[in-house]
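Researcher: Quick test of sequence recovery. Tokens follow.
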């Protein structure tokens, strides 16, 4: 069996109209084609974080990817956040945010995206804590994930892609670096 492989060349940019389209729910159980795509997305993110593999395969570093970023309008995301003592790793189908904190969080240096080449400086306010429900390919079951901090921000960024929203849509045009004293700064 030939396994699918995603490279940086497969990633569509924000100049491609598909990036703004609504992704469709995926039927379960997953078809072999959907499993293969989601696994390839997960492999891309994992491999992009390994300096040797990333250099050899020309991969842009990533912590997450949505299917729409490879031109497939299906509700699938993969996120891999490495820590010194472990990893937060999911390959979700039909992810849905089911609860969110009132408190916001943002990355001090702003966000980036595989599909965005241009500079879009500014703070992107997101919920500091969220709960996400979906089917996780890694665990092969429906899951509810409680996420906070950087993991929560990354999940929200990828889930936004499923409705055609990009990170810079959240930046205040009049005051891009505005702060919020109540927000968690990461």
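Model:
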């Amino acid at each position: 069996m030939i396994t699918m492989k995603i490279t940086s060349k497969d990633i569509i940019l924000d100049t491609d109209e598909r990036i703004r389209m609504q992704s469709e729910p995926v039927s379960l159980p997953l078809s072999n084609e959907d499993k293969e795509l989601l696994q390839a997305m997960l492999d891309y993110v994992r491999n992009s974080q390994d300096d040797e593999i990333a250099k050899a395969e020309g991969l842009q570093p990533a912590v997450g990817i949505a299917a729409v970023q490879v031109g497939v309008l299906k509700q699938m995301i993969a996120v891999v956040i490495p820590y010194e003592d472990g990893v937060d790793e999911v390959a979700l189908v039909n992810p849905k945010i089911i609860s969110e904190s009132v408190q916001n969080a943002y990355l001090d240096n702003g966000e980036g995206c595989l599909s965005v080449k241009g500079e879009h400086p500014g703070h992107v306010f997101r919920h500091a804590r969220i709960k996400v429900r979906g089917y996780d390919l890694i665990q092969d079951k429906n899951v509810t994930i409680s996420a906070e901090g950087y993991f929560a921000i990354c999940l929200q960024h990828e889930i936004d892609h499923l409705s055609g929203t990009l990170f810079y849509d959240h930046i205040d045009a009049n005051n891009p670096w505005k702060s919020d004293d109540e927000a968690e700064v990461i």
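The mean pLDDT is 95.
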